[in-house]
UniProtKB/TrEMBL annotation:
Similarity remark: Belongs to the short-chain dehydrogenases/reductases (SDR) family.
Keyword Methyltransferase: no
Record key words, sorted: Oxidoreductase
PROSITE patterns given in the database record: ADH_SHORT
The protein's name in its UniProt record: Short-chain dehydrogenase/reductase (SDR) family protein
Oxidoreductase keyword on record: yes
Molecular function terms, GO-annotated: oxidoreductase activity, acting on the CH-OH group of donors, NAD or NADP as acceptor
Record InterPro entries: NAD(P)-bd_dom_sf (IPR036291), Sc_DH/Rdtase_CS (IPR020904), SDR_fam (IPR002347)
Pfam families, per database record: adh_short
Length: 258
């Protein structure tokens, strides 16, 4: 059962689609103020309009943010209004995967883009808002990792390494804030059907459908529902990690398909 969770300021990175968009919807519809960020401002503005049609009483702030770029982050922070600077819930969702190349064939630009987004982006956004959480002695940080962070597979070296780094980051962060009321939850989804695969396969929609054939995958709403559940626990309860897989999936490679 959810406890009442309202009037919190929720910052979501990568909110223009997928898990980030679903998180924006569930938190805002329950009476929280959301800051939605991504690189595509047009999609954020469309989402903002959609959210306000459902709930006009809670704020929605849509701001462009490329988490892999320090200059973009600083512009974003500067544009935050004073009444939305103290973040209650941070959802580090922005991430990407590019290709399925073996290590010998990896391009430097792909390596840099994935690590800059998935790893450096989480570090930079967190360290920007963590001091305020520590000062106020409150907050909840969600890091969206993956089962790939602990269940490694061939041709996924960059992505697996990036999510393993997030697993370590979450564990270290939780230990560093153990004397505070700040909670840290590491979220590790399995197969979730979103635009994620389309990006991974360079826009090839047909290739992007292949991983989900023969199985009912998770949806972005499934992950958002679990995140909201974790956030709505009593303040003395900290769900440190949640691994979510579709039924008929046991690992990235062990999947029963019909």
């Amino acid at each position: 059962m959810f406890r009442q969770l309202a009037n919190k300021i929720v910052l979501i990175t990568g909110a223009s689609t997928g898990i980030g968009e679903a998180c924006a919807k569930i938190f805002h519809s329950n009476g929280n103020h959301v800051i939605i960020t991504a690189r595509r401002l047009d999609k954020l503005n469309a989402l903002k309009e959609e959210l306000l049609k459902v709930n006009k009483n809670s704020k929605v702030l849509a701001l462009e943010l490329d988490v892999s770029c320090e200059d973009s982050l600083q512009r974003f922070v500067k544009d935050l209004p004073d009444d939305m600077k103290d973040i209650d819930i941070l959802i580090n969702n922005a991430g990407c995967a590019i290709g399925v190349d073996p290590v010998a064939n990896i391009l430097a630009k792909d390596l840099n883009q994935v690590l800059d987004t998935n790893v450096k982006g989480v570090f930079n956004v967190t360290r920007e808002f963590l001091p305020s959480m520590i000062k106020l002695n409150r907050g909840h940080i969600f890091n969206i990792s993956s089962i790939a962070g602990s269940m490694w597979y061939p041709n996924g070296s960059i992505y697996c390494a990036s999510k393993a780094a997030i697993n370590a980051f979450s564990d270290v962060l939780r230990k560093e804030v153990v004397a505070t009321k700040i909670r840290v939850t590491n979220v590790c989804p399995g197969l979730v059907e979103t635009d994620f695969s389309v990006v991974r396969f360079g826009g090839d929609v047909e290739k992007a459908k292949v991983p989900y054939k023969g199985i009912e995958p998770l949806t972005a709403e499934d992950i958002a529902d679990n995140i909201f559940y974790c956030a709505s626990r009593p303040e003395h309860v900290q769900i440190t990690e949640i691994t979510i897989m579709a039924n008929n999936q046991a690992s990235p490679s062990v999947i029963h398909r019909n």
